[in-house]
């Protein structure tokens, strides 16, 4: 009765071997590496890059241990950090700005293990060192900005259809247009409702003062917020690529937050500067009618004409710019430095998206001969980068910005344009930095806790339950093995609380074996034969084990749902640990007991203490 | 080896009044300390900044305080942490300084005063993040309670569900009481420990309840009191051995786990110790007083409600 069918042994054996295979990579350690990935989406990750990297290193006579390509880029392994740094410098010099070259650590997993997808566990920031930021996106600002651009859109539509209005402004997130007659207001509403269907319109007023208010529907607001978040995520991605970090994480959290994790980054000041850079770009028209000397001088003393703003250009000369924004930086899809074919001057080539191209075409057609100002707004101060004269209508969304002093400036500005502007400002609301030595120490602490705890439990179990204690310890060992294997397979982030959860899972999993062993003893005491006692012990204990594990599972799932960061890490391991313990404590230990006792004819005594 | 060879059933239920009064007293004390002293929340909850700085030589705490004063930071606590070379600096949330600026300002100032200073860990949390944690923590606790009660009501009976939850919430309150009394820092990992304990000590109740149900089937003549006494006595050995094992693991974390896991293991230790007691000696009397009997557990309806009460009275 205490014999397992062959298939059960085969199943357990297979699971054990798979567990072993996926656990092994954790013992190989890591070697210093350099990771090369394209900085632009237009560049592909292909064999060409691989060969380029290889030839660069061979030319420079830098020895390397391995060279391969995966989804995130080309990776080169080195014997030590000195050659790693040397290689990085050489690669940066050779590949130029189109590629990001980042220092990295690559697991030394043998190829045959890598080919079955076996990797070491993915360590969280508290174990490998690095920075974690939580950024809050200012959604009110995003909505304000959307309303502001609606004002511009309205103006253009109304002017195109020659509808007379005498005022337009943004009040909070509502756009108000003033009319002298109700007929005009109605006409305007019909026109605008057709062009901008996601706004709700209302006409109010009397006599010669009618106003049309347009407010965003809840749906539209939601869409704008989602878009702002996406845009910010993308912008952060681009900016972080600039930093050259291997395996950065940029993720949405909740509706209006972004998590940024930069493993291995120690220079937090630089990281913060790049993340917190609030540069936004705007294109506006220069108010040519009022740009005479007298008005400019008056403006400098504070008397700025209505509807204009005064800024200084790079040489400090005053420029009067209209308040109305033609385009914002989020309409720019690409930007790169270039050279003007005719005069050889440095320029920036900008590509606009569809809507941006349309607006740009209209504006340039209507304003030939006038100047267009490109404004950079950074940390609350606005600067006119350049204010070129529009020579002709520019269609197709490809724009050349002249006025760069040299090639370096063209590169800088295009980087700024390409890395994009944020759709809404962001603020860092949480920062966690863990130094690399701290990370190593945390790993040591977690591993020591688990191993010493395990050893102590093993000794106590064997002393107390003899052979059955030994079986329990083996089952617990299998549990540990499977837990590590599953964590490696899933590549779930392992944190220090996660390591604690491994230890705790083992401490709790032993409960199942204690239950079984106690039950067998009890059956023996009641005068049952050894074989019957084993059978009854396992059978009766199973219900209890199941019930108690389900309640633990409920707690684990709640933790997973409401926890963030390290707590989530704890919850994942906790839940997985419960599942593996069901397998090992019941199936594996039973198989071992069956092997030991199940095939004997006569058992004098069970060695259960 | 066998430590608990108990021949006769121990009449646990007759101590019911005593054990529940002890519980009640500790419970009231815990509530008192919680209200009177309150929890010493970590930065996770309150917001603020904690920095761990390592010095090559023993750190000069006084000098660090002066540096903080010099850069105009008030309400700074500086203390040794683990060893004389490690220093922990704490600051409350500063309205006029953003998180990004604050940690930069401190590390620059510290490095200016002593070039050997190495910032090993920074945790800066804005106040809005902390507020959400309260909500999420409370929600998680509620969800765990509801989930466990639902499961126990389904698998056993609502009386057991109520008894188990009361017993285990009592553990949670006592853990919190300890944290309030000693003013240990209450952070996210402690919260995780508490929820884990909640799941874990319900195990205890489940094991005993399981036995109670089994006994009701087997011991058809026995009263509810006898049945419960027998169930507790029979499972006592297992209860103690299991807790000993889990506690061994937790002690290992307490000794080797360093500062981060210290309070986590403390919470678990208290939870485990009180868990043994409450899941057996609090949950069972409550279940009994709620009127658990053979009829409502196994579903045979021979008994009438009046007889229940007779059987239940200790």
Topology of helices and strands:
The complex is a heterodimer of chains A (609) and B (314).
Chain A lengths: L5 H18 L6 E9 L8 H13 L6 E5 L2 E5 L3 H15 L3 E9 L3 H5 L6 E2 L1 H4 L1 E8 L1 H22 L6 E5 L2 E6 L2 H14 L3 E8 L2 E8 L1 H26 L5 E5 L3 E7 L4 H9 L3 E7 L6 H8 L7 E5 L5 E11 L3 E8 L6 E7 L1 H13 L5 E7 L2 E6 L11 E4 L5 H12 L7 E9 L1 H55 L2 E2 L1 H30 L4 H33 L3 H33 L11
Chain B lengths: L15 H21 L3 E2 L1 H4 L1 E7 L6 H10 L6 E5 L1 E9 L7 H15 L4 E8 L1 H29 L2 H25 L2 E2 L1 H31 L5 H33 L1 H24 L1 H7 L4 H5 L6 H8 L2
Parallel strand pairs in B: 1-6
Antiparallel strand pairs in B: 2-4, 2-5, 3-4
Q: Any overview of this molecule?
A:
The complex is a heterodimer of chains A (609) and B (314). Chain A has helices spanning 6-23, 47-59, 81-95, 111-115, 125-128, 139-160, 182-195, 218-243, 268-276, 293-300, 354-366, 407-418, 436-490, 496-525, 530-562, 566-598, and strands at 30-38, 66-70, 73-77, 99-107, 122-123, 130-137, 167-171, 174-179, 199-206, 209-216, 249-253, 257-263, 280-286, 308-312, 318-328, 332-339, 346-352, 372-378, 381-386, 398-401, 426-434, 493-494. By secondary structure, chain A is an alpha+beta fold. Chain A folds into four domains: 6-24 and 435-598, Up-down Bundle (Multidrug efflux transporter AcrB transmembrane fold); 29-104, 2-Layer Sandwich (Alpha-Beta Plaits), CATH 3.30.70.260; 141-221, Hypothetical Protein, Haloacid Dehalogenase-like Hydrolase, Chain: A, domain 2 (2-Layer Sandwich), CATH 3.30.1240; 222-428, Gyrase A, domain 2 (2-Layer Sandwich), CATH 3.30.1360. In chain A, strands 14-15-13-18-19 form a five-stranded antiparallel beta sheet. Chain A has a four-stranded antiparallel beta sheet with strand order 2-3-1-4. Chain A has a four-stranded antiparallel beta sheet with strand order 11-12-6-21. In chain A, helix 13 (436-490) crosses helix 16 and helix 15 (530-562) runs antiparallel to helix 16. Chain A starts with 5 loop residues before the first helix and ends in an 11-residue tail after the last helix. The mean pLDDT of chain A is 84. Chain B has two domains: 12-41 and 129-312, Multidrug efflux transporter AcrB transmembrane domain (Multidrug efflux transporter AcrB transmembrane fold, Up-down Bundle), CATH 1.20.1640.10; 48-125, 2-Layer Sandwich (Alpha-Beta Plaits), CATH 3.30.70.3400. Helices cover 68% and strands 11% of the residues of chain B. Chain B contains twelve helices and six strands. Chain B has helices spanning 16-36, 43-46, 61-70, 99-113, 127-155, 158-182, 188-218, 224-256, 258-281, 283-289, 294-298, 305-312, and strands at residues 40-41, 48-54, 77-81, 83-91, 118-125, 185-186. In chain B, helix 6 packs antiparallel against helix 7 (188-218) and helix 6 crosses helix 9 (258-281). Chains A and B meet through helix 9, strand 21, helix 13, helix 14 and helix 15 of A and helix 4, strand 5, helix 5, helix 7 and helix 8 of B. Strand 21 (426-434) of chain A pairs antiparallel with strand 5 (118-125) of chain B.
């Amino acid at each position: 009765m205490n014999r397992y069918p062959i298939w059960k042994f085969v199943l357990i054996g297979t699971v054990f071997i798979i567990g072993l295979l996926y656990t092994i990579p954790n013992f190989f350690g890591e070697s210093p590496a350099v990771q090369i990935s394209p900085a632009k989406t237009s560049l592909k990750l292909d064999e060409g890059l691989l060969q380029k990297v290889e030839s660069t290193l061979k030319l420079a006579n830098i020895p390397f241990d391995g060279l391969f390509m995966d989804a995130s880029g080309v990776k080169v392994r080195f014997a030590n950090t000195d050659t790693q740094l040397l290689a990085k410098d050489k690669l940066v010099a050779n590949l130029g700005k189109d590629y990001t070259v980042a220092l990295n650590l690559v697991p030394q997993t043998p190829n045959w293990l890598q080919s079955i997808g076996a990797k070491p566990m993915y360590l969280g920031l508290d174990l490998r060192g690095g920075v974690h930021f939580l950024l809050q996106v200012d959604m009110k600002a995003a909505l304000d900005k959307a309303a502001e651009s609606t004002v511009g859109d309205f103006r253009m539509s109304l002017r195109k259809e020659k509808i007379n209005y005498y005022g337009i402004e943004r009040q909070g997130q509502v756009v108000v247009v003033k009319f002298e007659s109700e007929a005009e207001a109605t006409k305007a509403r019909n026109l605008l409702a057709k062009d901008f269907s996601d706004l709700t319109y209302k006409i109010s007023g009397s006599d010669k003062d009618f106003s049309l208010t347009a407010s965003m529907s809840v749906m539209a607001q939601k869409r704008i917020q989602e878009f702002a978040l996406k845009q910010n995520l993308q912008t952060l991605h681009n900016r972080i690529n600039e930093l050259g970090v291997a395996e950065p994480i940029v993720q949405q959290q909740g509706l209006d937050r972004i998590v940024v994790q930069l493993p291995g980054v120690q220079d937090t000041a630089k990281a913060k500067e790049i993340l917190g850079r609030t540069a936004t770009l705007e294109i506006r028209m220069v108010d040519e009618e009022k740009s005479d000397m007298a008005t400019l001088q008056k403006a400098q003393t504070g008397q700025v004409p209505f509807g204009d703003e005064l800024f200084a250009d790079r040489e400090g000369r005053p420029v009067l710019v209209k308040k109305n924004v033609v385009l914002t930086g989020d309409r720019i899809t690409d930007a790169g430095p270039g050279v003007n074919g005719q005069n050889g001057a440095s320029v920036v080539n900008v590509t606009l998206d569809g809507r941006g191209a349309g607006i740009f075409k209209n504006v340039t057609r209507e304003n030939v001969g006038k100047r267009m100002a490109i404004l950079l707004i950074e940390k609350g101060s606005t600067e006119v980068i350049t204010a070129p004269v529009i020579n002709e209508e520019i269609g197709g969304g490809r724009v050349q910005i002249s006025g760069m002093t040299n090639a370096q400036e063209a590169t800088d500005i295009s980087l700024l344009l390409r890395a994009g502007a944020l759709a809404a400002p962001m603020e860092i609301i949480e920062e966690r930095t863990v130094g690399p030595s701290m990370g190593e120490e945390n790993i040591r602490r977690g591993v020591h806790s688990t191993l010493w705890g395990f050893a102590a439990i093993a000794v106590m179990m064997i002393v107390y339950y003899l052979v059955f204690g030994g079986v329990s310890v083996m089952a617990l060992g299998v549990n540990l093995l499977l837990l590590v294997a599953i964590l490696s397979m899933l590549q779930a982030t392992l944190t220090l609380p996660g390591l604690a959860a491994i230890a705790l899972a083992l401490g709790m999993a032993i409960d199942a074996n204690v239950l079984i062993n106690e039950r067998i003893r009890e059956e023996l005491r009641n005068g049952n034969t050894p074989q019957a006692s084993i059978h009854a012990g396992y059978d009766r204990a199973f219900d209890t084990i199941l019930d108690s594990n389900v309640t633990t599972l409920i707690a684990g799932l709640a933790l997973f749902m409401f926890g963030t960061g390290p707590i989530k890490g704890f919850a994942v391991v906790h839940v997985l640990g419960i599942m593996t313990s069901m397998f090992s404590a019941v199936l594996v230990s039973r198989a071992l007991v069956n092997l030991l006792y199940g095939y004997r004819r006569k058992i004098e005594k069970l060695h259960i203490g | 080896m066998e430590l608990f060879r108990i021949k006769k059933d121990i009449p646990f239920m007759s101590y019911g009044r005593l054990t529940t009064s002890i519980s009640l007293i500790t419970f009231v004390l815990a509530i008192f300390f919680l209200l009177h002293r309150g929890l010493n929340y970590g930065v996770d909850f309150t917001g603020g900044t904690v920095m761990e700085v390592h010095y090559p030589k023993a750190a000069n705490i006084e000098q660090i305080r002066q540096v903080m004063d010099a850069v105009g930071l008030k309400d700074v606590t500086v203390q040794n942490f683990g060893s004389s070379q490690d220093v922990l600096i704490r600051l409350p949330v500063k309205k006029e300084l953003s998180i990004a600026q604050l940690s930069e300002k401190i590390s620059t100032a510290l490095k200016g005063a002593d070039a050997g200073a190495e910032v090993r860990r920074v945790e800066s949390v804005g106040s809005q993040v902390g507020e959400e944690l309260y909500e999420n923590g409370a929600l998680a606790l509620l969800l765990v309670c509801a989930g466990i009660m639902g499961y126990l009501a389904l698998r056993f009976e609502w009386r057991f569900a109520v008894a188990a939850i009361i017993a285990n919430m009592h553990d949670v309150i006592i853990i919190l009481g300890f944290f309030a009394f000693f003013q240990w820092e209450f952070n996210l990992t402690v919260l995780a420990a508490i929820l884990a304990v909640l799941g874990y000590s319900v195990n205890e109740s489940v094991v005993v309840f399981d036995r109670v149900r089994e006994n009701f089937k087997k011991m058809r003549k026995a009263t509810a009191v006898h049945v419960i006494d027998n169930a507790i006595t029979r499972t006592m050995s297992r209860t103690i051995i299991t807790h000993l094992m889990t506690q061994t693991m937790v002690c290992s974390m307490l000794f080797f786990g360093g500062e981060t896991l210290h309070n986590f293991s403390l919470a678990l230790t208290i939870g485990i110790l009180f868990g043994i007691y409450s899941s057996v000696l609090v949950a069972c009397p409550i279940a009994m007083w709620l009127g658990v009997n053979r009829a409502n557990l196994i579903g045979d309806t021979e008994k009438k409600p009046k007889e229940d009460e007779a059987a239940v009275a200790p």
